[in-house]
Known about the structure:
By secondary structure, the protein is mainly alpha-helical.
Amino acid sequence: MIPALNNVAWAVPERDEVGPAGMAGLPRPMYSKSEIVNAGKVLRENLTRDAIPTIQEARGLHIVQAFAIAHSWRDAHMLPLLRVRMELSRKLKHVEKDAVAAARLKRMASIRRKLQRPITLY
């Protein structure tokens, strides 16, 4: 049985909530750090048809919910990324009139491949 998913994974803070400088208006996570880490561990696994029930039981998290948590984490970076790109575009215009700055969120397939790589401590 697939658990019901909440479409709103991030909440917009109230007007009177003040955080660190420049952070006002950014979404707050609705998932805890441990839920995000656990979702990453689920998505790191080789998700074959036979392995999914074992993974879900071991991690206590449904695969669909793990993807929902990962997508919400990924989507939460859209606004900060946009702000950085806009600031970069403004600064580029002073250097080169026709310069273009581009940005995109990482695709989920790329995120999963990165999670599957061996951890390296540089």
